[in-house]
Amino acid sequence: MTDFPVSNVSPGSGSPELLDAACVQVRDMTQARCAVVIVIDGDSGSGYSIVGPLDAQILLPDILRKVADSLRGQLGVHLQ
């Protein structure tokens, strides 16, 4: 059990083409090898897209874990 709200987010959600296009645009604009777009409660629901080679995607679990830990710390201060 967690003290934090949980959102149901799935790959692509209701409009996977839109999320994929946004993710490609972010990757191209930043000239990155890999990009991730996460949408929460958008017009077509919640979802995510990942664009990039597998050798870059393999880094995502650790990066996302660090982001989650950081957010929990920041939100914990503001929600007390």
From TrEMBL:
Protein name, per record: Uncharacterized protein
